[in-house]
Every structure is written in C-alpha cells, then in structure tokens.
Amino acid sequence: MKRITQTTLLLAGLGAIAIASGCKAGKTGQAATDEDAAKKVYVAPGKHDELYMFASGGFSGQIAAYGIPSGRLLKVIPVFSQNPENGYGYSEETKPMLNTSHGFVPWDDTHHPEFSKTNGEDDGRWLFINGNNTPRIARLNLATFKTEEILELPNVAGNHASPFCTENTEYIVGNTRFSVPLDGDKDVSIGDFKKKFKGAATFIKVDKNTGRMNIAFQLIVPGFNYDLAHAGKGPSHDWIFFTCYNTEQANTLLEVNASQRDKDFIMAVNWKKAEELVTQGKGRKAPAKYAHNLYNERTHSATSAMENDVTMLDVKDYPGLIYYIPCPKSPHGVDVEPNGEYFVASGKLAAVIPVFSFKKMLGAIDQKQFEGDFDGIPVLKYNTVLEGEVQKPGLGPLHTEFDGKGYAYTSMFVSSEIVKWKVDTREIIDRIPTYYSIGHLSVPGGDSRHPYGKYVIALNKITKDRYLPTGPELTQSAQLIDITGNKMKLLLDFPTIGEPHYAQTIPAEKIEKNSVKFFKLEENDNPYAAKSEKEARVVRKGNRVDVYMTAIRSHLAPDNIEGINQGDDVYVHVTNLEQDWDVPHGFAIKGSNNSELLIMPGETATLKWTPDRTGIFPFYCTDFCSALHQEMSGYFRVSPKGLNVPLTFHLGENLAAR
Amino acid sequence: MKTGSRIAIAAAMVLLLTAYFLPLWEITLSAPQYPEGLSMDIWLNGITGNVLQINGLNHYIGMQHIDPQNFAEFKIAPYVFGLLILIGSVASVKGSRKLLIGLLALMIVFAAAGFIDFYLWEYNYGHNLDPHAAIKVEGMYYQPPLVGYKQLLNFLAGSFPATGGMLIGLAGIITAATLYIEIRNGKRNEKERNDRAAGTLDHRLQSKA
C-alpha cells in the first residue's frame, strides 16, 4: 500500500513538472499538423506534382521551381546571377544577358515572380521577375525555363514595386523603392531630397505574341518609397495601385523618420489614361541610358543593346492621372480581390487592415472628396474610399491573397502568422502560426481573377530550430497549408534557395504541356554551330582561335588539338549533336578561369579560354551522359608563342602508335 | 465472278492503297532510361521515327547506321504495290478469275520475299558488327525479332505490323477468301448443273410412274 502511494506521488510529481515546463512562458506551441498531412503531400515516386511554384531566390538573384504539394525542388533557373553550373552568364552566348548601363552586373536581388496573364488569369506563358538592386525586369520563357529577356529601368533605384502586370499583360510595372534624382541630374545634395528626388512609375509594354518588353512611359511621381503594386481587374481594369511609404520624404534614419505619419498613401494610377496621353503625343522624351538584353532561342545567343531615351509624363501636368488614398501606416502590399472591386492594403505598422472600394474611389473622385493635395496631386478622404477595416488582425500585416471563395489570407510578419478573413464582412475566421516571420504568401492563382485555391504557402524569413542546424547561415523556408476547410491546416514545411520573397503557384498542366524536350539541330542558327562532325574544325585568326567542336555520346570532336599558343584567346564553340530528351553534355577545361558549360541537345555554347601557361590541358564532358562518359575527353596542347607549332586537330586517329 | 466477289476485290485493292499513307511495320525499343520508348516505323518508301536516336545508341555495339537511302527495297516497293493494285483492279472490273489467281499468287510471292528480305536485313544489322565497337558481349547478337519481343541487353525490342501492315494483311485474306469462294461456288455450280440434269431425268421418271 505504502509503495503504491509512493509511486502515485512520484507520478503526480513528474506530471506536475511536465505541465509546468509545457506552460513555460514564451514557449511557442507547435501547430498541430493535419492528421492526413503525410497523405496530402506524398507524391509517389514517378508521379508528378499538382502545381508548380516559382519562388524568387532573393539575394541569390535566381528563381527556383518547386513541385507542390511535395515541396520538391525541380530547378533553379538562373536570371540575374551567373551560374557556373550551366555556364549562364559565363558563356559568350549568355554574357550579354547581364549587361547593364553600369556594365556587367552578374548578380541581383530578386523579389516578385509574376505570371503573364490573359483575361486576368495566369496563362503559363512567361514569368517576369524584378531585379531590385540594379533595376531590371527579366522575362522567362516557361516552355524552356530560360531567361529570355532582361530590361533595365532608368531613373529608378531599388526596383521593388515590380513587376506586377495588368489584366492582359498589357503592361508590367516597376517603381523605385529608393527615390533618387532623375538620371539627367548629375550631382545633387542628399539634403535636396524633397526638391530633387523623384519616383518613376515605369510602364513596360509587353508584346502579346513574343513577350518582348519595351518601356512605354514613366510617370514622374513625388519622391516617396514605392513598395509594391497590383493592377485592377474587371471593373478596375484601367487602374493600378502602388503603395507608398516614407511620405515624410525623410532621407536619413528612415527607421524613425519615415515612420512618423499615421497614414501614408496608396497611389491609384489610371494607366489607361496615361496610355491615351502618350498616344496623343503628350509627355517628353528624356535622355536615358539603359540596357535591353534579348536571348534568341534559335541562335542560342543573347544580344545587349543600349537604349537612349524614355518617354516621361510628369503627373503634376496631367490632372486625373493619379490620386492618393491615405492608408494606415507604412503600407507594404496592396492586393486586389478576384472581382476587382475591393483592394486591400497592409500597413506594416498599422493596427487594422483597410479594405477600399473601387466604386467608392470613383465616387470620391467624381465628387471631389479631397482632404487636400500633395504636390498638386489630390488626396482623397480616407473614409470616402474605405469599405471597412479588419480589426485586430495581428501584428505587421504585409500581403494578402485570395482563394476565390470569398476569403482573404493576410501574412503577419511580426506576430508570425496567417490570418484568414472574410472579404465582404472583414470578419476574422482563423489564424495559423508560421515558422517564423512570414513575408509574402502564395495562394495558387491568388492574385488572379480565378484563384485555384486549395493551398496557401507561407514564405518565411527565419527558420532557427526548424531543421537540422547548418552553422550560422540557415535556410529560409516555405510552409504548405491546406485551406480547403474552414480551419487552415499545416501540411508541410520545406527549405528554399536564397530568400523566397514571393512565389507564384500555377496548376502544372498549364506549363507541362508546353515544355520543350530539346532544341532542333536544323533550327540552330548559331553562327559558330558545327552541325555534324564533318564541320568540326579549328580556325586561327591572329591571336584568336575558334574551335568548332561537336559533342555526341560519347566523344567530343576534335579531341586532339595542337598549335594553340600561350595567351591565345581560344573560343570553344561546343554544339551538342544529340536530338534526344535529357541528353545534355558538359564541357570543361583544366584550369579554365571562366566556367564550365552545360549544353542542351541541339544547342551551341561557347567557352572563352585564355591559357596562361604551356602544357597539355585535358578537356571533358562534365555531365554523366552515357556508359562511356568517362571516355568523353580530349587534349589541348598549348605551346610557347613563337614556336610555331602547326595548328592540327584530330579525332579517331590514334597517335599513340607513333 | 459474282458481283459480290468483284466488290470484295475492289475493297481489297482500296486496303492495299492505304499502304501509301500508313506505316507498314513498327520496331519498338524500351529500356529503363527510355520510359517514353523509341520506335521506328517502316513505310512503303522509307523509315520514320527515332532513327537518329536509335543510330546513336547502336554505335556503342558497332551496328551499322540505318540509312533509308541505302535500301533498294524502298525504291521498288511502291511499284510492286502499284502492280498488285493494277492487277486486282482489272480483275475486279473484268470479273476475271484467272487474274484473281494471278493476284493472289503474286501477293504470296511478294509477302514471302518481303519477310525473307526483312529477316535478312535484321540478320545483317544484328550480326554484321564493327569489330572495334566499344561494347562487345561474347556470343551476343542484336538481331531484332521478326515478329514479337526479344531482350537485347538493356533494351526490349518489339517487332509488329503497324496499321498499314494490318490492312495489307486483311487485303490478302480478302483476296484469298474471295478466290476460295469463287472456286467453291464454281464447283457447286458445276455440281448443280449436273444435279439439275440428273433431276430432270428423275422427274421424268417419276411422272411416268
């Protein structure tokens, strides 16, 4: 009996300790995952995912494609950063892609992937993404998963409010996060911020058939920090909304000085009207210098051209072009619900989420319900545009996406959670923690007219204890959450490359069916292509040596090259002769200060190599292509200059017998 | 020939005509790393499909390059089929049983020649290998099956008639069946004539009784 009592007491004591430690203040509770989570995210070997998610790589400068719901990383697509893995930005063909008015800038900071849209729906043709640092916008072809075009934006610094597109991809936009003097002003004191620093809302026309981008016009707007944007749809088709913070126009210690006003602005732009003005010849051509780089799928080569001017419209001169809507405090995202009637702004320091009505905005403009003006631009009265506010949503609201069933999902950076609320009543339905400090979130099709819904993906900045530790530098993460029920359910949590600022997610079938398997050799228009082994050769012109090389399982032709001199500029043009699916060949030279190449079937890529010493330099295929991949190699002989070793090249004549 | 037979022969000739528009034979290859499969379609006048890829793979074992230009068969075959169709059409129009017999005989001869040629072609490609090939497996030859499946190293090779080939086969069966019916009918008619002659006699005998 005594023993039983003792045991009971011991158990009770242990229980108390367990309860006490469980209740320790500040301990974050682990959100229960859905019971069926494993089943819902398990994609059996050989089966395909339901969706593609394209997430920005942030400071990696690239984009990564993931399969959803499995979270499997499918491909890292090089965009603004050199990628030695496949030679992007190193090969002669792709170097021009990274040219800018500042010269070669082989890195950037990507933020917001944006699908091209048709009738307000993601059409799966192209993906745009901004380079925040050296202001650029890239266009990727989703049939080849290659970066096809990069356009620099003049008069902009920190292209953050970018590249959001209008309902039919008529335009994509860019705007400055760090207002700067226009490029024409050569030397300005930072103290002249209010007078001289400007924003440049840039409208880029996208060709309907080719996707080619061209700057149509820039709207010169007051020097605020322009953060994000979203275009209207349906009734609000003609308008686009930008968030502005630092309407204080501070230029130092922004942390404090740009956080003084209770309300900053949403800038509503009537882009249709701006387009009409430009068509009428309004505005002025201003000199500007910006690079426009295009990749040609048939030559497998990029060209870079420098543009010389841009059309500008100073918004002060054209009343009715833009209006300011006061918005609580330091708004970050502005998001338009699927019907195009309500738009939601998230003031990152605000205690409420305002929901504005497009109809009311037009009414307020009509009845001139202005509370004043800023630099001559009318500021609408907050209450005349407001439909209502989401009360006590959490801390640090950033972005909102929609499920097409009347619900909105807002990310809360500071309270690290997603809040689900009803668009028409603004009533909070549910909240779920994120691990940790969510930035953007992505509902498949969540910014389109017809969201696919089903999931919301949290894109988190901090992971701390979520995975096995990897030293001080930890991964960032994405979290897949089921939104099919009333309550959100956490399904999966997976690491990402770089920083996944924003991601867009699309049903796989919209992309899968267009995916190119290989390039046709007969369509290869690269001037340095060798389309058969008969065309393989080595040509010298002064110090320049062009090697026209072919690669096919399992040899490179020619594979014995002599007569190269130390200090020559050797251009090795490798054509992959394969015409089959998934047979790339690699190419690498010992000691090359450049990179290696990865050449897709039917493609030609060029590695420039300047041998700095004499000797024998093996070269070989770096992609295990076949049973005799290890044999896929050859030799360069580099001789001292002046020795005049004749230029010779061979394949298949075994000189070893000599 | 009966009208029915003449129509049947005409139909068989139409089926033969499809040989100009449809592949006759298909050789398929599948391996673990080729889940999508490779195939070669043999037509009256050439080969289509993954010839390039198959040649690429075959070089490891020292097989000769398959080049449709090197086959005299593809130059002759369209004329052979033209001849068959001509004979069949005349047979149908004229209702000539003799021509029909000729047609079937030619069909059998050409089919036999075709299969023998195909077999020899496969034998040659499968056995006549480059002695310097990278992959040499003792006692291994790569002759694809005439009809059916056969495992050749990592590849499962299949050889089967394609749509056009099946339609030609059907044309052959129709031709043979028509001829058989014609001959049987011919015999029956002869018997009937004889019977009728005998019957008349019986009748007379009966009426007498």
- How much of the sequence lies in strands of chain B comes to 15-25%
Number of helices of chain A: 8
Low-confidence stretches of chain B: none
**Cα Rg of chain A:** 29 Å
The percentage helix of chain A is under 10%
- Largest protein interface? A-B, 11 and 8 residues
Beta-strand content bin of chain A: 35-45%
Mean pLDDT of chain A: 93
List keywords for this structure.
heterodimer, A: 658 residues, Lipocalin, 10-stranded mixed β-sheet, 6-stranded mixed β-sheet, B: 209 residues, alpha+beta, 5-stranded antiparallel β-sheet, 58% helix
Description:
Chain A has 658 residues and is mostly beta strands. In chain A, the strands form ten sheets. In chain A, strands 6, 7, 8, 9, 10, 11, 12, 13, 17 and 18 form a ten-stranded mixed sheet that branches. Chain A is globular and about 85 Å long. Chain B has helices at residues 3-17, 51-58, 73-94, 97-127, 163-208; strands spanning 25-31, 34-43, 46-49, 148-152, 155-161. In chain B, strand 4 and strand 5 (155-161) form a beta hairpin. The longest helix of chain B is centred in the C-terminal third of the chain and has 46 residues, at 163-208.
Concise description?
The complex is a heterodimer of chains A (658) and B (209). Chain A is mostly beta strands and 658 residues long.
Topology overview:
The complex is a heterodimer of chains A (658) and B (209).
Chain A: H1 2-22, H2 37-41, E1 51-56, E2 63-68, E3 72-77, E4 99-100, E5 103-104, E6 114-118, E7 121-131, E8 136-141, E9 146-152, E10 171-174, E11 180-181, H3 193-196, E12 197-206, E13 213-222, E14 225-231, E15 239-245, H4 254-257, E16 263-270, H5 271-279, E17 284-296, E18 301-314, E19 322-328, E20 331-336, E21 342-347, E22 352-357, H6 358-366, E23 370-374, E24 377-380, H7 382-385, E25 386-391, E26 397-402, E27 407-412, E28 417-422, E29 428-433, E30 438-442, E31 455-460, E32 476-482, E33 489-496, E34 503-507, H8 509-512, E35 537-541, E36 544-552, E37 555-557, E38 560-565, E39 569-576, E40 585-589, E41 597-599, E42 604-609, E43 615-620, E44 633-639, E45 648-650
Parallel strand pairs in A: 13-18, 36-39, 38-44
Antiparallel strand pairs in A: 1-2, 1-34, 2-3, 4-5, 6-7, 7-8, 8-9, 9-17, 10-12, 11-12, 12-13, 14-15, 15-16, 16-19, 17-18, 20-21, 21-22, 22-25, 23-24, 26-27, 27-28, 28-29, 30-31, 31-32, 32-33, 35-36, 36-37, 38-45, 39-42, 40-41, 40-43, 43-44
Chain B: H1 3-17, E1 25-31, E2 34-43, E3 46-49, H2 51-58, H3 73-94, H4 97-127, E4 148-152, E5 155-161, H5 163-208
Antiparallel strand pairs in B: 1-2, 1-5, 2-3, 4-5
